[in-house]
């Protein structure tokens, strides 16, 4: 080894000092980006940028604070830094509409990290971009038509009845409060497991089943995973060299095997089922008859089928379970609203032979309002992300959003904005009466996103939440246990909003 000063320690110190100086200069230079663009910005700090410690505090909640700050200063947008990545937070509703919908062609992608070589399961509809996304989205959209949803409805009800029975047993055998999110995660795992893979997950009988284990792993962010995500956000090429994956290997292997085995079984035994997987199998069959797979989203390979089944599972189970959990939290703390929803459920069911059906659920208007208001106050997704794919001159502003710039919208920011919502902290489902909804600006309430990249599973997700709530509320009264830590604090280690310490409820049979 060559020594420059004759002492290894002095050499090491000199090299370390030089590296720290270069890194410091790089941070400082990068943190001038918004100043150079003449865009107002939130002051960054090394090493996390505008965010305080993202390992300790939820990023979505912090960005809501930036939204408020920008709004109070009259800014229509402002620059922030996610660690080293300059990101434009847009606040003005007209600009939000341009980015998400009207000028969508400039903002088609989310800029998610994809690594096709090491992580094909991570190359799903949520993550991919460009023409591949466009083709695949067009292919998968018919999966969620009313007809297809109706054909899956009975599966949801069957899972709902298992949920109902589980709580009933709990009420009679032990009077302890329950961590409701865990229970609803079993329900939604059963629903999505059945609808996305055609499998009976039996989560209530076996809470440690592989589906629950890997499902939990998708949404928890360990320190190592958090660090990897920071690296791939700022340096995606380095992520690829390091072989960093979005979907952990054991999770990907598990879902790959499940899909491959199920497809092989169905093809061999000519089994057809009314579920998402069957629709993907049919798409693949049509493709095989039509043209070869070119990896352009026009046709489906087995790997792509696995990736899409995975994202339906991943995007579907946690979001729906958390939304239902928060709805029950609000109903437990607002007993008069709980009574009103229950009265509606009973009345509507009485008109439908006491059957929970696609039509009866759709007739429960006030229940829909309760869910809308829950998703305003406690949306499980807190941000919408896009990346600009060609320079975009913002109409009426002295601003060009440069190609490659990340753009975010704070769902919570607009949903708590006093300009659009009176007493925004208050839970009030009457805000979503049919009359009021007519005059609502849809960009003030975006729990499922907006525009061509909005949630593809919105109707399925809502159906699941409604079935879960109907099954529980028609049979039980819920109230909040003292075990729930108040005020609710959102966990920093979960991708979707989740209360630290859980939400604990007492159920009482009616
Ligand atoms: C209450 C339940 C749900 C909530 C709150 C929710 C929320 C969201 C949000 C906020 C987005 C991003 C939209 C945007 O960027 O504009 C999204 C995208 C997505 N969601 Fe959902 N979701 C739910 C249920 C589901 C279900 C049940 C599925 C599938 C079965 C699903 C599949 C997806 C997919 C595939 C995308 C990406 C769409 C694309 O990029 O084309 N979601 N969801």
UniProtKB/TrEMBL annotation:
Topological type in the membrane: Peripheral membrane protein
GO MF annotation terms: heme binding; iron ion binding; monooxygenase activity; oxidoreductase activity, acting on paired donors, with incorporation or reduction of molecular oxygen
GO CC annotations, alphabetized: endoplasmic reticulum membrane
Cofactor(s) the protein needs: heme
Keywords of the record: Endoplasmic reticulum, Heme, Iron, Membrane, Metal-binding, Microsome, Monooxygenase, Oxidoreductase, Transmembrane, Transmembrane helix
Similarity remark: Belongs to the cytochrome P450 family.
Record localization: Endoplasmic reticulum membrane; Microsome membrane
Positions with a binding annotation for heme: 455
InterPro entries cross-referenced by the UniProt entry: Cyt_P450 (IPR001128), Cyt_P450_CS (IPR017972), Cyt_P450_E_grp-I (IPR002401), Cyt_P450_sf (IPR036396), Insect_CytP450_Detox (IPR050476)
Gene3D superfamilies per the UniProt record, alphabetical: Cytochrome P450
Membrane-traversing stretches: 6-27
Protein name: Cytochrome P450
